[in-house]
Amino acid sequence: MVKEMQFRLSLKESKNENLLKQKVAHYLSISKGDITAIKILRKSIDARKPKIVINYKLKVYINENVEEKSNYNFDYKDVTKAKEIHIIGFGPAGMYAALRCIELGYKPIVLERGKNVQDRRRDLKAINQDHFVDADSNYCFGEGGAGTYSDGKLYTRSLKRGDVRKIFENLVYHGATEQILIDAHPHIGTNKLPKVVRNIRETILKFGGEIHFESRVVDFIVKNKTLKSIVLKNGTEMTVNAVILATGHSARDIYELLHKKEITLKAKSFAMGIRIEHPQQIIDGIQYHCKGERDELLPAASYSLVQQINGRGVYSFCMCPGGFIVPAATTNGEVVVNGMSPSKRNNLFANSGIVGEINAEEDLKKYEKYGVLKGLMFQKELERLAFTSGGRTQTAPAQRLTDFVEGSLSNSLNPTSYQPGIKSAPLHSLLPKLIGSRLRKGFKAFGEKMNGFYTEQANVIGVESRTSSPVNIPRKENLEHIQIQGLFPCGEGGGYAGGIISAAMDGERCAEAVVKSYK
Ligand SMILES: Cc1cc2nc3c(=O)[nH]c(=O)nc-3n(C[C@H](O)[C@H](O)[C@H](O)COP(=O)(O)OP(=O)(O)OC[C@H]3O[C@@H](n4cnc5c(N)ncnc54)[C@H](O)[C@@H]3O)c2cc1C
User: Fold this and answer.
1) Mean confidence (pLDDT) of the chain
2) Is the CB of 147 under 6 A from ligand 1?
3) How far apart are CA 55 and CA 69, in angstroms?
4) Are residues 470 and 267 in contact, defined by beta-carbon separation less than 8 angstroms?
5) Measured from the CB, is residue 248 less than 6 Å from ligand 1?
6) What pLDDT score does 326 carry?
7) Atom 35 of ligand 1 has which residue's CA nearest to it?
8) Centroid of ligand 1 to alpha carbon of 389 (angstroms)
């Protein structure tokens, strides 16, 4: 017999590996020897009360063998001579579009402006150490997209948009830890992601797909409202049948190109703000009700905060426990911050974006002259402001949290994980009121929700501007662009995803849509 059940152990009990079996046997009134195996399907920590509890969802095998086979088999076909589908961008959306093409018997031809994961590392070092940003190879651009050097948090709210489990199983197939199939808040970590990305590349190449790095697409040739060919930066023109456009939300040149070519775009609401950084120990202390070090069995604590301020949401975004703040600009002359963490989440700091909603209809009146690109122009302006106030390098403007809220310049700043360094700046007056005043009120409210969060030991660092796309590339029900035949906007850049998993699922859907359009 196989029985699925929920079970709870105290943190102390969970330290003893044998105890789970013993307790389950006792609960089911059977002998321990009757239990062939226990498979943990889900594990989560309930730290709401000082006595921390571990919740398990279990599959208990009673006098029954464990079935080893996963329900997911990845049936990749040799597509060397198959019909071609062009994919622009090799982030999560592009990678999963390519893998799905191969499953469906089509040959993906991927064009990626950045470098492979290994070579990309050198350019990240240059951003951190020399303050130089390569416009084709940075934290957003290159093999694996913006997801490669990230936290690799894998949860998503887009459960209805595709088969989430399939993406998780596929990540495991490509080398991610099986733990992601169990944890309630799974993550891979920036040190482990490049290997998974490289394995995905190898699968695509092995089955006959093509991936061209350092191949930025700079033009689309459209005739009679049909996409005929794409042009690369080196002048190569490629004839295409269908193109999955998975260039992410930082490919501003793509939005500008589409706009110039009068291909319909829409302005979209988005969110912007700053990144806050606390010593991890403070967050652990609040969330786990402890003083000093957290219990060794507990992961670095995280939080999720939201507050309505003047009719707009202010919320935490992409929280990275035990992580680093990274410079995520895509060109020189701008400063953008984001966060990532290693698989062990063992750095000394906890960081998170704290952002406010920007309503494209109501909040950007000053930018109306830019039409559908108004949000993008607003983002750019703030990133330039962060650049100049940080000292015209990748050094970021920063302030102690309490000074930001109270409106005074910080005489000194707290230590930070942000490698290019931080410089004291009056972010409270530099940020537009639309963002700054809402965030300041939001922080006060957060301090009331999480006692100890509002502290002078935290820094706020600017600016967190790339949370989601300010532009939508509209598509029809069949996922083709509303006006251009053969163009399939995909992933976060199109406005159809908000993270690694939702982008991957949209990639799969777009591949299926293209294949349908071929039939
Ligand atoms: C530092 C950081 C941390 C993050 N942490 C997380 C996290 O923990 N969890 C999570 O779910 N999400 C996280 N995100 C967001 C996540 O990475 C994105 O949501 C996701 O990568 C979007 O996938 P995508 O494929 O749509 O676009 P992208 O990942 O942006 O990929 C687009 C790709 O297209 C390429 N490209 C752009 N223009 C062109 C062109 N003209 N020609 C050819 N190629 C082009 C780019 O080089 C890039 O590789 C993080 C992002 C960053 C920057």
Assistant:
1) 95
2) yes
3) 25
4) yes
5) yes
6) 97
7) 89
8) 27
Q: CA 362, CA 378: separation in Å to the nearest integer?
A: 13
Count Cβ atoms below 10 Å from residue 232 Cβ, excluding itself.
17
List 87's β-bridge partners, or say none: 110, 244
455's tokens: 């502290």
Q: Is 148 in the pocket of ligand 1 (CB under 6 A)?
A: no
Nearest CA to ligand 1 atom 30: 248
- Dihedral pair phi/psi, residue 398, rounded to 5°: -150, 165
- Rounded to two decimals, what is the model's pTM? 0.95
Atom of ligand 1 nearest to the CA of 341: 8
Look at residue 70 and tell me whether its pLDDT is greater than 80: no
- Residue 47 CB–ligand 1 contact under 6 Å: no
Q: What does each C-alpha distance from 260 to 219, 313, 368, 373, 430 come to in angstroms?
A: 11, 33, 17, 11, 32
> 141 C-alpha to center of ligand 1: Å?
7
Which DSSP symbol is given to 143?
T
Q: Is 123's C-beta closer than 6 angstroms to any atom of ligand 1?
A: no
Distance 475 CA to ligand 1 centre (A): 20
Encode pLDDT of 332-386 as tens digits: 999 999 999 998 999 999 999 999 999 999 999 999 999 999 999 999 999 999 9
Q: In what order do the strands lie in the sheet with 84-88?
A: 210-212, 107-111, 84-88, 243-245, 487-489
Name the closest-CA residue to atom 3, ligand 1: 150
Is residue 4's pLDDT more than 90?
yes
Gap from CA of 87 to ligand 1 centroid (Å):
14
- Find out whether 145 and 248 touch, Cβ atoms under 8 Å: yes
- Tokens 């889900």 correspond to 42
The answer to whether the bond into 463 is cis (omega within 30° of 0) is yes
- Which residues are registered as beta bridge partners of 59? 4, 39
Q: Please report, to the nearest 10 degrees, the dihedral formed by the alpha carbons of residues 419, 467, 258, 109 taken in order.
A: 70
Give 146 Cα–ligand 1 centroid separation in angstroms: 3
pLDDT confidence bin for 159, thresholds 50/70/90? low
Closest ligand 1 atom, CA of 93?
A: 25
* CA dihedral sign, ordered 469, 471, 476, 482: negative
Q: What is the Å distance from ligand 1's center to 154 Cα?
A: 14
pLDDT of residue 56 exceeding 80, the answer is: yes
| Confidence band for 174, pLDDT divided at 50, 70 and 90 | very high
Q: Atom 19, ligand 1: which residue's CA is nearest?
A: 499
Q: Which of 98, 151, 87, 91 is nearest to 120 (CA)?
A: 91
Ligand 1 neighbour 150 (Cβ under 6 A): yes
Q: Is the CB of 353 under 6 A from ligand 1?
A: no
Which residues are within 8 A (CB) of 458 and not within 5 positions of it... i.e. 6 or more apart? 276, 277, 278, 282, 400, 401, 414
Least Cα distance to 63 among 92, 28, 107 occurs for 28
- DSSP assignment of 244-257, as one string? EE---TT-HHHHHH
